[in-house]
Amino acid sequence: MTTQTDSLMDFLDAENAQLKAEGRFVRLRVLTGHQAPVSVVDGKRVVNLTSNNYLDLTGHPKLKADAKAAIDSHGVGTAAVRPIIGTQDIHLALEQKLAKFKGTESALVFQSGFTVNVACCQSLMSDPKDLLISDELNHASIIDGARLAKAARKVYPHKDMKALQAILETPEARSARRKMIVTDGVFSMDGDLAPLPEIVDLAERYGAFVMVDDAHASGVMGENGRGTPSHFKVADRVQVSIGTLSKAVGSVGGYVAGQKRLIDYLTSTARPFTFSSSHPPSVIATCAAAIDVMLDEPQRIQKLWQNAAHLKEGLKKLGFDTGASETPITPVLIGDTKKAQEFSARLFDEGVFALAICFPIVARGKDRLRTIVSSGHTAQDLDFALEKFGKVGRELGLIP
Q1: Is residue 188 annotated as a catalytic residue, yes or no?
Q2: Phi/psi of residue 128, nearest 5 degrees
Q3: CB distance 133 to 180 below 8 Å
Q4: What are the CA-CA distances from residue 191 to residues 26, 86, 117 (Å)?
Q5: What is the DSSP string of 52-118?
Q6: Phi/psi at 153 (5° precision)
Q7: Is 279 a catalytic residue?
Q8: How far is CA 385 from CA 37, 58, 285, 373, 393, in A?
Q9: Domain boundaries in the chain?
């Protein structure tokens, strides 16, 4: 029975109908079992080209064993935020390990990559006289963090260093109390890299500091997966280094690494850190174990890049446009929402899961399938996927 109170929410029917009409209504896919290169999704066995499990660590024996041991020694949760009594010894041990891994004085773990970006933007850009300068294709968490910051905001066209320099030369920038340039290291939709050497050159020339979100570079780029600053050999010139624990690391969370005074400041001021309960011990142990594996098994990263090249080259030979990708993120550009969604659905029927990414996640006309390989895919898995891409692509008239 519908009550008068229930009717107050009737507007949601129209909103959901509009989302469906625009192709933006989300139906959650259900994964059975762990996130594997070949997974069972919605009851169907498929080659999984949609996961961020780059190093195939979600089922690694060491990660699982350490998670179980942490439950026995530290319990299932902390039931507190970090600044009260939610900091256990293993939290500090993970942060010390991350700082050593990144080559910084200190590090601080957050509940997710999203919250660490929000926290850093909000805390470091805390005055209207500050200026936050952002690439137009930065992740949504950076955009939302910038909105929550009190600073003025400027956005430069994607990777356009002349435009960035022009912003830095404006009177507003020259008079700013502090300036921060924020960029993704790897851009999540196109798989291209930020021009970090040019960015840090401009930052130093104009008195700005740099924040790099390495969500899709953590475990993927640089020495043993240390990220894009390591890849470009500018790690000592990036002041705020963001990493994720939710993708290649195979668990969940985010962290910021940098000078001790940066971490001290964020510990005292970052609202997501102060007002969210800390990670359960099993998660912390899993993340620590993953760092060990990244150091001890570098062949996982090598295999990841071999697989990425295999798929990328195969898609190009079939006639697909893979855009500007330089990483294991390989888009298959379609340019039409309905065609992209139909392509994804037909591939799924054929045993390949490659999700359609459409407006508003990407700009209109930039609709695509986004594929991501892992180190766990076999050549046979990828050849099967390429065969199905070719079959369905020809049937839909997307390739000759």
Answers
A1: yes
A2: -60, -20
A3: yes
A4: 23, 36, 19
A5: --TT--TT-HHHHHHHHHHHHHH-S---SBTTTT---HHHHHHHHHHHHHHTSSEEEEES-HHHHHH
A6: -130, 140
A7: no
A8: 12, 22, 34, 11, 12
A9: 18-48+298-395, 61-296
Report the DSSP beta bridge partners of residue 154. Answer: 133
Q: What is the per-residue pLDDT for 359?
A: 81
Sign of the four-CA dihedral 351, 48, 61, 69: negative
pLDDT in tens, 92-151: 999 999 999 999 999 999 999 999 999 999 999 999 999 999 999 999 999 999 999 999
Q: Sorting pLDDT into bands at 50, 70 and 90, what band is 26?
A: confident
**Strand, coil or helix: what is 329?**
strand
Q: DSSP assignment, residue 396? A: T
Q: How much is the pLDDT for 116?
A: 98
Q: What's the first-to-final CA gap in the chain, in angstroms?
A: 55
Structure tokens at 291: 């760092």
Determine the 3-state secondary structure of 398 from DSSP.
coil
Q: How many helices (H) and strands (E) in the chain? A: 16, 14
H/E element, 240: strand 240-244
Query: Quick check: is 339 catalytic?
Result: no
Please tell me which residue in 216, 310, 312, 388 is annotated as part of the active site. 216
Instruction: Specify the pTM.
Output: 0.95
Whether 218 and 302 have beta carbons less than 8 Å apart is answered as no
Domain 61-296 part of CATH 3.40.640.10:
yes
CATH superfamily of 18-48+298-395: Aspartate Aminotransferase, domain 1 (3.90.1150.10)
Classify burial at 181, counting beta carbons within 10 Å of its beta carbon; exposed 0-12, middle 13-18, buried 19 or more: buried
C-alpha torsion sign, points 71, 72, 76, 77: negative
Residue 331 in 3-state DSSP?
Answer: strand
Q: Which of 60, 91, 159, 247 is catalytic?
A: 247
Q: Is the pLDDT of residue 325 over 70?
A: yes
